[in-house]
Design brief:
Low-confidence stretches: none
Mean pLDDT: 86
Shape: elongated
Number of strands: 14
Helix content: 40-55%
Order of helices and strands: HEEHHEHEEEEHEEHHEHEEHHHHHHHHEE
Strand content: 5-15%
Length: 492
């Protein structure tokens, strides 16, 4: 609906829409010389600063308008003669209401068929915090906040170039949540951005409260097996991804960014890998891959070896295991399953308990439950060791969603190992590898560069399980546009 020249029509429509909204303030005004021009202002109470403060944008604008005649008011608003930076003309009531719900003040003036959006302090937020879930030894300690504008600014602080684009879109029928698509123009492969736009337009939902909702609403059916987005709370990690040619999706009210495309290789990388010596980073990456294998297959291998293939183990270890298991009433598979489920219970309890109490439950609970179970001959000490190593392996995986996938597959491989021995474990791992090979993320093979590495002249293998020196990583990854993949060259 277009904004009318008659203030009364606009007032009636606005008041009809904000009826019973106690947090939305409606302020009638008389502006101009001798206060003969009617106007009104609408805004969210806590999102807009005091109207008459001299140092606020709204206060400066209103104070100047008070001394003008009617014709001068219209010309000033139309041409922004006061030079106020954060003002914008709105032509429809829908635009005006959306601007108001975004945390701005909106001014309507009698005889003027446009509304004026006046930027203000916006909704309250948590501000820039320190990283919590992605701690590192080196690099920035800044973390994303819950404001999409502030998060965009944190990335812009690191990429100070107009080629970094930020496209905003409102998602959610009632929540009208702002999302921002960030990419480097000329480097990004544009069909990736276009695919995300299509996916955002392909659904309608009441509200979006976190980026995780967009993550699961925009993935295709076959993409549900493994993560096709990489989540991060670090602005420097998001900036690195943009410089590689990937795309970052920010969501208002969410302190995390979604990075896509994502591959198995990228999910094992961390932000501070690129701030440290390549030899130690290679060593740590190998440890992460070993930890992932332990989190996935160690319980199944232990059950298979203890039940079907004891001849594979040294004699002293077999005798030690037999002595430790004497008096345990459960079979090995049930014993391991009991301990794994106990650790899952402790992990969930620790997450749900507030503050330091959660850490206490995780550490003390694990010690008490494990010791009590061994003392009561419910489980053997080696089973507790296997469960602890499996838990440590899952904690060492940098990406939480990938860790969750391995935690679920662990039970399937445990079942196969308890039924078919080592052959069952190998069958489970082979099936997992087959599904990984079938997976794609926005057209990129999920196992790249371990498969299809020649697509980018083997350049991505220099930043995989083994990290080459920075001067040798001259090409951008496969995510970037083909004609613009050189990112490092020496000056002649």
């Amino acid at each position: 609906m277009r904004i009318s020249l008659h203030l009364s029509e606009n007032q009636n429509e606005v008041q009809k829409q904000i009826e019973n909204c106690a947090d939305i303030l409606f302020r009638p005004l008389l502006i101009g010389e001798k206060e003969k021009t009617e106007a009104f202002l609408i805004y969210i109470e806590v999102a807009v600063s005091n109207l008459m403060l001299e140092d606020s944008v709204i206060g400066k604008l209103l104070n100047r308008l008070l001394s003008m005649d009617t014709k001068e008011i219209y010309g000033t608003l139309e041409n922004n003669s006061l030079g106020i930076s954060d003002t914008k003309e709105l032509f429809t009531l829908e635009e005006a209401m959306a601007a108001m719900f975004a945390g701005n003040a909106v001014l309507f003036v009698d005889g003027y068929d446009r509304a004026i959006k006046i930027g203000s302090k916006g909704y309250p937020g948590s501000g820039v915090q320190k990283t919590d879930s992605e701690k590192g030894l080196r690099g920035s300690k800044e973390a994303f906040s819950e404001s999409v504008k502030m998060n965009t600014a944190l990335i812009r602080k690191r990429i100070r170039n107009a080629k970094m684009k930020a496209e905003e879109k409102q998602v959610g029928r009632y929540s009208a949540t702002t999302t921002a698509l960030l990419y480097l123009d000329g480097v990004v492969y544009l069909p990736i951005c276009e695919e995300m736009r299509k996916r955002l337009n392909a659904f309608e939902v009441d509200g979006i409260e976190d980026g995780g909702m967009i993550e699961y609403l925009t993935r295709k059916k076959k993409e549900g097996r493994f993560p096709v987005y990489q989540t991060t709370e670090r602005p420097d990690r998001a900036a690195q991804a943009i410089l590689e040619g990937r795309v970052v999706l920010l969501t208002d009210n969410s302190p995390e960014a979604l990075i896509f495309p994502a591959t198995l290789n990228s999910l094992f990388q961390t932000a501070d890998d690129y701030y440290r010596n390549e030899r130690i980073v290679t060593f740590l990456r190998l440890i992460r891959y070993v930890a992932a294998f332990l989190a996935l297959a160690l319980p199944g291998l232990y059950v298979a070896a203890a039940t079907f293939h004891p001849q594979l183990l040294p004699g002293n270890l077999i005798r030690s295991m037999a002595e430790a298991r004497s008096g345990v009433p459960f079979p090995t598979a049930a014993e391991v399953l009991l301990m794994e489920l106990s650790f899952e219970l402790l992990r969930e309890a620790g997450l749900r308990m507030p503050g330091p109490a959660g850490n206490t439950i995780g550490i003390v609970g694990g010690l008490i439950v494990g010791q009590a179970a061994v003392s009561a001959n419910l489980v053997s000490p080696i089973t507790v060791t296997v469960a602890a190593l499996t838990a440590l392996g899952s904690f060492s995986i940098p990406n939480e969603e990938l860790s969750e996938v391995f935690r679920l597959w662990k039970y399937g491989i445990l079942l196969l190992g308890s039924c078919f021995g080592i052959l069952g474990v190998m069958l489970g791992c082979f099936l997992l590898l087959m599904l990984m090979a079938e997976q794609e993320s926005y057209g990129i093979p999920w196992l790249y560069p371990y498969v299809g590495g020649n697509l980018n002249e083997r350049a991505d293998e220099k930043d995989s399980m083994f990290l080459a020196a920075a001067r040798k990583r001259k090409r951008r990854p496969i995510f970037a546009k083909w004609g613009n993949r050189i990112r490092f060259r020496r000056k002649s």
